[in-house]
């Protein structure tokens, strides 16, 4: 399967389409057919199919919109191609015919396709770049929809991958990754990982995933993390774009945006060899079935010719990883204690909701970003949410106003965890001094309800409502010195500042000597004096 999309890639294509011609985009992906006889190259709206022994294409076509994903049928020489305009085109290589399939015939618009994979069961799974449509399963021969998979926590879907036996579908979205058993309601959630590329080991026992922040290998049966490697932040200069196992399982290939393909040992995950490729936000390559060849875009030969090469890695080679990476083998998942914030006396960073420049120079207008106070430079953290609150080690608490409270771990995990989620409106999260709890404002659904201040443990337990439901109480902030919580309330008709203990056992009206504007003014910024990471570079949104 080749997915050059996800919400991030679709947005980049849209932006680039406005400022440049289609011929200048040069979004190139490659893949072998299942028998290794043919390979396909897509570039923007164009697709070319070559026989391995020929330099001239057997088939080529210009499609109605940009290709965002495609995959070969495991049964015969057919391709399913997903376009940005929502169309799925089935191409028969032998007859050179095209069939257009509408994935959502009951809607009056085409949703953006985010991923498309064709399983050995002859079922094509198609996902969309919105939080409305479920994953659709369609018969690859009849083009009839057979089923759908709807997992709200994983919408919009970034990546899909069928297991080798076609019984399980790996799914990744903004809240993490999961393995869904098709035909049942069983879904195995995986430990940390919002990925833009997923790949099963040939024996179906492991699942690998890569995203902007790093790559992970999981035990596909129990969901435990077996290996993880993360890019240190400050700012990102290089990030993972694609992962794929060699067909015999002995090697793993990793593609990087700066133009590098790493060949890794399939068991130890050590780097054995690197290949120079054309830099690309979606650097693409493909292992040839039953061979050691890799299909990729050579930076010298140019995008019009993707050349298969033969690798001869030494099994004893143990090349040292790049210094900006920290590979970590993890035999069993273990709890990681939360570090206390390191105070630096006025230095540090600010997290804010607004505009900043993300990976590969892309500008984001509505994102959670960071600002280094000393240098004034900004960096991208994640998309979605509001009211960011920054803790130590670049952990950011934020809210979805009508959804819940979440924590994005930029430095340690590069993924998002859910603290609490329910109906109602959430706002203004704040960290406790030891970073074990969050305070936040919450208003239940209903026209006459008021905001209350609540606290919750990071694992979602121990929810406490600390203020009365008859007044509006908002903007909680924890004192690092006393451990008390300051907040605003309209208890006397006017919005005033109050102070209470974390259990609300005692509270009093504050008597400031001058007007105060330091309590989360605007509810869009949050400052924490924490030591900046020691990495050479900064952060993301998903692949």
Average predicted local confidence, pLDDT: 75
Q: State the separation between the terminal residues, measured CA to CA.
A: 14 Å
Largest sheet: 5 strands, antiparallel
Q: How many DSSP helices?
A: 2
Query: Helix fraction?
Result: under 10%
Strand arrangement in the largest pleated sheet: 1-6-7-8-9
Integer-rounded radius of gyration: 25 Å
Relative strand content: 35-45%
Task: List the uncertain runs.
Answer: 5-26, 302-347, 513-543
Strand tally: 45
Structural class: mainly beta
Q: How would the global form be characterised?
A: elongated
Describe this structure in words.
With 543 residues, the protein is mainly β. The longest helix has 13 residues, at 7-19. It is elongated, with a radius of gyration of 25 Å.
Question: What is this structure's SSE topology?
Answer:
Layout: E1 2-3, H1 7-19, H2 22-25, E2 28-32, E3 38-43, E4 46-51, E5 59-62, E6 67-72, E7 78-83, E8 88-92, E9 97-101, E10 113-118, E11 123-128, E12 135-139, E13 145-149, E14 159-162, E15 168-173, E16 176-181, E17 187-189, E18 197-200, E19 206-210, E20 214-219, E21 225-231, E22 240-245, E23 251-256, E24 260-265, E25 271-276, E26 285-287, E27 293-297, E28 306-310, E29 325-329, E30 349-357, E31 363-372, E32 378-383, E33 386-390, E34 395-400, E35 404-409, E36 415-421, E37 425-431, E38 437-443, E39 452-457, E40 464-465, E41 473-478, E42 485-489, E43 496-500, E44 507-509, E45 525-528
Antiparallel strand pairs: 1-6, 2-3, 3-4, 4-5, 6-7, 7-8, 8-9, 10-11, 11-12, 12-13, 14-15, 15-16, 16-17, 18-19, 19-20, 20-21, 21-29, 22-23, 23-24, 24-25, 26-27, 27-28, 30-31, 30-45, 31-32, 33-34, 34-35, 35-36, 37-38, 38-39, 39-40, 41-42, 42-43, 43-44
């Amino acid at each position: 399967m080749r997915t050059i999309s996800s919400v991030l890639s679709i947005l980049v294509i849209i932006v680039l389409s406005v400022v440049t011609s289609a011929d200048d985009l040069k979004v190139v992906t490659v893949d072998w057919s299942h028998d290794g006889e043919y390979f396909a190259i897509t570039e923007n709206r164009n697709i070319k199919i070559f026989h391995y022994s020929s330099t001239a294409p057997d088939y080529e076509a210009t499609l109605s919109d940009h290709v965002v994903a495609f995959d070969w049928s495991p049964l015969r020489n057919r391709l399913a191609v997903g376009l940005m305009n929502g169309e799925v085109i089935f191409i028969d290589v032998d007859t050179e015919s095209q069939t257009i399939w509408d994935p959502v015939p009951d809607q009056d618009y085409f949703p953006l396709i985010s991923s498309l994979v064709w399983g050995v069961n002859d079922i094509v799974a198609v996902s969309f770049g919105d939080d409305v449509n479920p994953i659709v399963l369609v018969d690859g021969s009849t083009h009839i929809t057979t089923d759908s998979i709807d997992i709200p926590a994983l919408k919009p879907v970034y990546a899909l991958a069928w297991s080798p036996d076609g019984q399980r579908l790996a799914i990744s979205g903004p809240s993490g990754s999961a393995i869904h058993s098709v035909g049942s309601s069983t879904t195995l959630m995986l430990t940390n990982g919002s990925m833009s590329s997923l790949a099963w080991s040939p024996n179906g026992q492991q699942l690998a995933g890569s995203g902007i922040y790093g790559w992970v290998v999981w035990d596909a049966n129990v969901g435990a993390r077996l290996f993880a490697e993360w890019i240190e932040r400050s700012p990102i200069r290089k990030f993972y774009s694609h992962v794929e196992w060699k067909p015999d399982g002995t090697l793993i290939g990793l593609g990087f945006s700066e133009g590098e393909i790493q060949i890794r040992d399939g068991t130890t995950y050590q780097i054995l060899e690197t290949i120079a490729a054309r830099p690309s936000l979606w650097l693409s390559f493909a292992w040839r079935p039953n061979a050691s060849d890799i299909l990729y875009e050579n930076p010298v030969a140019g995008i019009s010719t993707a050349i298969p090469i033969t690798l001869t890695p030494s099994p004893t080679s143990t090349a040292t990883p790049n210094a900006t990476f920290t590979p970590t083998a993890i035999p069993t998942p273990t709890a990681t204690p939360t570090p206390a914030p390191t105070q630096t006396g006025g230095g540090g960073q600010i997290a804010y909701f607004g505009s900043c420049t993300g990976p590969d120079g892309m500008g984001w207008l509505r994102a959670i970003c960071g600002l280094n106070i000393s240098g004034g430079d900004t960096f991208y953290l994640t998309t979605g949410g509001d009211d960011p609150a920054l803790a130590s080690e670049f952990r950011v608490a934020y809210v979805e106003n009508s959804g819940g409270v979440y924590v994005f771990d930029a430095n340690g995990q590069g993924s998002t965890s859910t603290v609490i989620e329910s109906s109602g409106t959430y706002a203004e999260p704040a960290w406790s001094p030891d970073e074990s709890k969050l305070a936040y404002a919450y208003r239940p659904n209903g026209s006459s309800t008021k905001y209350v201040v609540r606290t919750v443990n990071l694992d979602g337990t121990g929810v406490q409502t600390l203020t009365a439901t008859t007044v509006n109480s908002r903007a909680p902030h924890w004192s690092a010195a006393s451990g008390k919580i300051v907040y605003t309330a309209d208890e006397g008709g006017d919005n005033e500042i109050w102070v209470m203990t974390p259990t609300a056992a005692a509270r009093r009206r504050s008597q400031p000597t001058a007007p105060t504007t330091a309590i989360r003014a605007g509810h869009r910024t949050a400052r924490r004096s924490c030591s900046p990471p020691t990495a050479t570079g900064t952060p993301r949104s998903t692949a």
